[in-house]
Amino acid sequence: MTRAFVLSGGASLGAVQVGMLLALAEAGIWPDLLIGTSVGAINATYIAGHPTPDSVTGLATVWRNLSRDAVFPTNPLLGLRGFLGKTDHLVSDTGIRNLVRSHLTFERLQDAPIPLHVVTTDATSGEEVVHSSGPALDAIVASASIPGVLPPVRINGRTYIDGGISNNAPISVAVDLGATEIWVLPSGHACAMGAHPRSALAMVLHSITLLVHGRLVSDIERYERTTDLRVVPPLCPLDVSPSDFSQADRLIQDALISTRAWIASGHFDGNATELLHPHAH
Fold first, then answer.
1. What does the pLDDT look like over 128-162, one tens digit per residue?
2. C-beta of residue 41 within 8 angstroms of C-beta of residue 143
3. Among 79, 159, 198, 203, which one is least packed by beta carbons within 10 Å?
4. Phi-psi region of 268 (alpha: psi -120 to 50; beta: other; left: phi over 0)
5. CB environment 242-272: b (16+ within 10 A), e (fewer)
6. CA–CA gap between residue 118 and residue 109 (Å, rounded)
7. How far apart are the first and last CA of the chain?
8. Does residue 237 have a cis peptide bond before it, meaning omega lies within 30 degrees of 0?
9. Longest dimension (CA), the chain
10. How far apart are CA 258 and CA 6, in angstroms?
């Protein structure tokens, strides 16, 4: 058996995956390989480089200490240049680069203690590109480079952006890699917000999570009858914006409790798509 963990994107909602990982580790469920997109690639990278189940507590500590400014440092001049078309992004990637670099334990993807595969999108063609070897830092940052917000990343002559644009929860990649048991850890989306986001960044992030949610549902419908597919239920209802990093502790704890209960139920083979419809569970 080859067990794959597939971690989706979702910006600050990536904290939900940490609670899921804590519950799975407690239950002795641990991956043989990891596939990540966007913030899921960042979480997967930490696990790949800290390969024992008790390391998830370290990832939880990282999330609890995060702030939006640390990930998306604001610079009014850069934002103005982006608005005027002088640059292709609004926010510097120094924050996300420093975050990834400070917890990266390997320089090349092929050297990860747990095999790691990072999904990006070709910025020109829109093609999904999976990175399984080569410089780790650039691939991970590229996977999380939200178009228009963060700068695209050049790797070997090609330009890449957020993997969530082409494949937010890359179940197909796990299948192609030969995984026989696939656990999907969706970060979910803010299905119960009382009003639409008020800031430009929050609106972009919320819109992307809504768009990519549909791809996840269709992928699960495609594979759940032919693959041993286990979709960890995302938090629902959820009222936290994907730009709000202040709620990480709450999201981790809620996801930990929810995932513990789901594991205890033993109902891994139900209709997974039902779990992804707002307020279905």
1. 999 999 999 999 999 999 887 889 999 999 999 98
2. yes
3. 198
4. alpha
5. bbbbebbeebbebbbebbbebbeeeeeeeeb
6. 9
7. 30
8. yes
9. 54
10. 18
Token digits of residue 112: 């990860």
Contacts 24+ apart (CB under 8 A), 51-58: 51/113, 51/114, 53/25, 53/26, 53/28, 54/25, 56/18, 56/21, 56/22, 56/25, 57/22
Instruction: List the one residue out of 143, 99, 92 whose CA is nearest residue 245.
Output: 99
> Per the structure block, which two tokens stand in for 9?
């994107």
Query: Strands, DSSP E only, in 223-278?
Result: 229-231
- pLDDT at residue 82, rounded to an integer: 42
| Amino acid identity, position 29 | I
Q: Is 261 helix (H, G, I), strand (E, B) or coil?
A: helix
CB atoms within 10 A of CB 120: 34
**pLDDT single digits (tens) 167-198:** 767 899 999 999 999 999 998 876 655 555 55
Q: Are 232 and 257 in contact (CB under 8 A)?
A: no
Look up the pTM and report it: 0.88
DSSP conformational letter for 230 = E
Distance (Å, whole) CA 95 – CA 92 = 7
CB count within 10 Å of CB 135 equals 15
Number of helices (H), then strands (E), in the chain = 10, 8
The packing angle between helices 14-26 and 56-64, to 10°, is 150
Q: What's the burial of 85, exposed, middle or buried (CB within 10 Å: 0-12/13-18/19+)?
A: exposed
